[in-house]
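Input record, target 12 of the design panel.
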């Protein structure tokens, strides 16, 4: 069962349809409801290695759906602390709960100031309306 459309206010959003939940010098990253809806049912998630670094605006993994394979774009730079093994084993978790159990990676931020360039929920909804 796919999740209902939502864009939680406490998250920050990247124009490539990725989100970040920032907590001090760490952030949890995932893809937005819009992204999972556009992709359709996810069937595979290719994560980065724990300990690797991700760079803002660059690909850090891939998600494969019944429709396409898409890069996952990092909204922030950091070192990968944890990969969500549940999504690796059950990619459809992202469709069911993109902001909860469907998170993708947790990172230690290398430049917390990058968050200033991300959109808040209202700005992201406006961005989507312009698409």
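The sequence produced for target 12 reads:
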């Amino acid at each position: 069962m796919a999740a209902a459309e939502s864009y939680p206010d406490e998250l920050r959003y990247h124009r490539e349809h990725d989100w970040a939940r920032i907590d001090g010098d760490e952030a949890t990253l995932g893809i937005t409801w819009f992204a999972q809806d556009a992709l359709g049912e996810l069937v595979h998630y290719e994560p980065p290695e724990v300990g690797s670094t991700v760079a803002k605006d660059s690909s850090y993994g891939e998600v494969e759906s019944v429709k396409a394979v898409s890069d996952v774009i990092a909204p922030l730079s950091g070192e990968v602390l944890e990969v969500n093994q549940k999504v690796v084993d059950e990619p459809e978790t992202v469709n069911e709960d993109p902001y909860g159990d469907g998170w993708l990676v947790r990172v230690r931020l290398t430049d917390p100031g990058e968050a200033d360039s991300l959109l808040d929920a209202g700005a992201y909804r406006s961005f989507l309306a312009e698409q």
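Strands lie at 12-14, 18-23, 26-31, 42-46, 53-54, 59-65, 69-73, 78-83, 105-109.
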